[in-house]
Task: inverse folding
C-alpha cells in the first residue's frame, strides 16, 4: 500500500468534509428506492404486498419504536424468523438507530440459542411464534432476558411469549422518523454466529462498509436489470442473506418472502410473479431438480440462480439448467459477507457440450468483484501453490468485505487473520486459467496410506449414479491405511442400489485408494442452510463395526 506524503499538494486544504464524505451504509439504498420507486412493489408475502413507500414507513416505525424502548447505538437486537417482511424490515430499522442486528438460525436448539442471546447481550428479541417452543426453553436458561416481541406471521401454531406483537409495536412508531446513517462506516451492523460444529458458535461481526460494497457488487456480478423479482429461497439469517436484503432495492426490485423451501410452492411463485432471481445451497437446486411432475409449474423466463455452500455436483447443475435456470456458482463463508469467489463465465465456454459446461461451472472460480485478493497457498509458508490443478493449498483472502472479527474472541480473530490474510480453512487447487476448485475443508480431507483424498471428488462421482439423490463422504478409521473413504448416501424415491454396486461404480471412475470401502444408506443430517453435518457422519463412521 502506498500513501501520498503529508506535504504533497494533494494533501493541502483538501480534507474530508460533510459535503464530500458520507459513510457507506446500506440503509441509504431503501431511502433512494422509496424516493425513486415509491409505488413499486418492494415486498410480497402471501396476501401482503408493500410498496417502497410502505416498506420505508414500516422500517421507520420499527426504528422509532425500538428507540422508545431504550435501544441505543451498540445494543444487540436478535431476531428469530424465517424469510418474512419483519426480517427484511429489521435489516434497515436496526442499523438506522446504530444498533446491531443478530439474526438467529431458526433450526438451532434451545441451549445454543440461549448461549447466543447471552453472549450477544441481546437487549431485544423479535421472535416468530412458530419457534415459541424452542425460544421459551432458551429464555428459561437465561438469568438476564431480553425484551421479547412476538411476530405473528403465517405460522399456524405457537404461543406468544412477549409483551407486544410486532404489528402493534410498529403502530406505536413514527413513520416519519429518519433512517440515520452511522457515524463511521466501520461500525458494526450485523452479528451472525457460525454453526459451532466443534464447540460454541463464534459471533461474526460485520461492518456497514462491507455490506454496502457487497450489495452493490451483487448487482454487477449478476448483471442485474431494473426491477428484478427475487425469491427468498435462501435463509436471510444465513451470512446476511448474501447481502441481498440490501441489493434488491438498489435496482427497485421486488423481494418475495418464503417461509420454507418447498418445490411446489417455489415453482408456483416463479410462474405467478415472474421471478428472475433466487439463491440457495445445492440442496435447493436438488429440490427443484427432483421435483415430481405434479409439483412443477412451467414458466417462460430463464431464472438466474446463485448457489454456494458445498460445491454443487456438475450433474445437478446440468439438470437444473435444463429446467429453465441459469446457475451462477459462488463460494464464500459466514466471515466474508457471503460471496468470496465467482465462477465468472467465459463466452468461449458456450460452445462446449452441456456436461463440460457444467463441470466448469462447478468450480469456485475467481475473486468476486468486491474482493481484492484470493490466493491458494501453502498455509505453512503462505506461498502460492502452482497453478496446475493438482497441488492443494488453503484459500486465503484480502478484501473490504471481510468481518471485523469474532465477538469477544480475540484469539480466534488473530488466528483467522494470521499473515495478513483471512484464512478460510478450505483446501483447493488452482487451475492454469487461474480458477480455483475446492477439494475439501481442511478438517474433512481423508489421508489414506499417506495419500490425500478429496471427499468432494468422491461425492461428485457418486452423484453420477442414477439411483443416488444425495451423497456425503467422510473418513473412517482403518488400522492398515489410517483412514478410508466412507460414503453415506440417500437413494431417489423408487430407486435401488446395493453397497457393492456403488463401490464397483466408483471404482470405474476413481483410483482404487479413493474408492469408498464402506457405503451407508441413510438420510443425511443437514444444517438449516443445506450443508451436510459431516461431524455427525464422522462419528457414525467411527462407530461402524
Result:
Amino acid at each position: 500500500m502506498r500513501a501520498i506524503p503529508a506535504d504533497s499538494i494533494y494533501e493541502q486544504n483538501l480534507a474530508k468534509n460533510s459535503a464530500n464524505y458520507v459513510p457507506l451504509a446500506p440503509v441509504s439504498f431503501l431511502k433512494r428506492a422509496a424516493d425513486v420507486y415509491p409505488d413499486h412493489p418492494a415486498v410480497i408475502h402471501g396476501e401482503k404486498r408493500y410498496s417502497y413507500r410502505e416498506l420505508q414507513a414500516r422500517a421507520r416505525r420499527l426504528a422509532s419504536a425500538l428507540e422508545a424502548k431504550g435501544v441505543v447505538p451498540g445494543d444487540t437486537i436478535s431476531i428469530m424468523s424465517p424469510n418474512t417482511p419483519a426480517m427484511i424490515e429489521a435489516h434497515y430499522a436496526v442499523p438506522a438507530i446504530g444498533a446491531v442486528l443478530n439474526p438467529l438460525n431458526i433450526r438451532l436448539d434451545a441451549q445454543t440459542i440461549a448461549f447466543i442471546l447471552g453472549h450477544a447481550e441481546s437487549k431485544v428479541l423479535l421472535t416468530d411464534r412458530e419457534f415459541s417452543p424452542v425460544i421459551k426453553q432458551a429464555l428459561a436458561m437465561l438469568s438476564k432476558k431480553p425484551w421479547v416481541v412476538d411476530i405473528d406471521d403465517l405460522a399456524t401454531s405457537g404461543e406468544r411469549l412477549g409483551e407486544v406483537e410486532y404489528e402493534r409495536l410498529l403502530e406505536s412508531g413514527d413513520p416519519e422518523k429518519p433512517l440515520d446513517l452511522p457515524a463511521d462506516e466501520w461500525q458494526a451492523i450485523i452479528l451472525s454466529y457460525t454453526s459451532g460444529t466443534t464447540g460454541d458458535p463464534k459471533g461474526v461481526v460485520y461492518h456497514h462498509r462491507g455490506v454496502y460494497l457487497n450489495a452493490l457488487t451483487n448487482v454487477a456480478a449478476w448483471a442485474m436489470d431494473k426491477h428484478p423479482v427475487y425469491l427468498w429461497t435462501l435463509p436471510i439469517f444465513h451470512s446476511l442473506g448474501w447481502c441481498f436484503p440490501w441489493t434488491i432495492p438498489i435496482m427497485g426490485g421486488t423481494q418475495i418472502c418464503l417461509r420454507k423451501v418447498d418445490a411446489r410452492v417455489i415453482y408456483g411463485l416463479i410462474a405467478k410473479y415472474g421471478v428472475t432471481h433466487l439463491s440457495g445451497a445445492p440442496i435447493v437446486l436438488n429440490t427443484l431438480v427432483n421435483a415430481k411432475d405434479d409439483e412443477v409449474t412451467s414458466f417462460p423466463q430463464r431464472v438466474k440462480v446463485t448457489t454456494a455452500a458445498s460445491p454443487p455436483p456438475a450433474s445437478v447443475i446440468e439438470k437444473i439448467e435444463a429446467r429453465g435456470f441459469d446457475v451462477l456458482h459462488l463460494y464464500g463463508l459466514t466471515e466474508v459477507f457471503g460471496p468470496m469467489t465467482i465462477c465468472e463465465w467465459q463466452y468461449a465456454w458456450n460452445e462446449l457440450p452441456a456436461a463440460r459446461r457444467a463441470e466448469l461451472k462447478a468450480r469456485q472460480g475467481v475473486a468476486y468483484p468486491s474482493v481484492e485478493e484470493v490466493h491458494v497457498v501453502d498455509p505453512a509458508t503462505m506461498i502460492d501453490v502452482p497453478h496446475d490443478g493438482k497441488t492443494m493449498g488453503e484459500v486465503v483472502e484480502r478484501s473490504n468485505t471481510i468481518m471485523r472479527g469474532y465477538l469477544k474472541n480475540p484469539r480466534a480473530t488473530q488466528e483467522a487473520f494470521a499473515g495478513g490474510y483471512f484464512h478460510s480453512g478450505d483446501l483447493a487447487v488452482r487451475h492454469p486459467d487461474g480458477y480455483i476448485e475446492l477439494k475439501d475443508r481442511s478438517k474433512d480431507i481423508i489421508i489414506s496410506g499417506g495419500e490425500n483424498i478429496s471427499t468432494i471428488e468422491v461425492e461428485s462421482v457418486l452423484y453420477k449414479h442414477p439411483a443416488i439423490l444425495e451423497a456425503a463422504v467422510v473418513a473412517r478409521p482403518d488400522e492398515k491405511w489410517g483412514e478410508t473413504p466412507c460414503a453415506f448416501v440417500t437413494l431417489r424415491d423408487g430407486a435401488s442400489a446395493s453397497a457393492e454396486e456403488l463401490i464397483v461404480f466408483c471404482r470405474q471412475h476413481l483410483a482404487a485408494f479413493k474408492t469408498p470401502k464402506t457405503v451407508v444408506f441413510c438420510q443425511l443430517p443437514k444444517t438449516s442452510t443445506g450443508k451436510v453435518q459431516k461431524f455427525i457422519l464422522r462419528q457414525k463412521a467411527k462407530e461402524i463395526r
The mean pLDDT is 93.
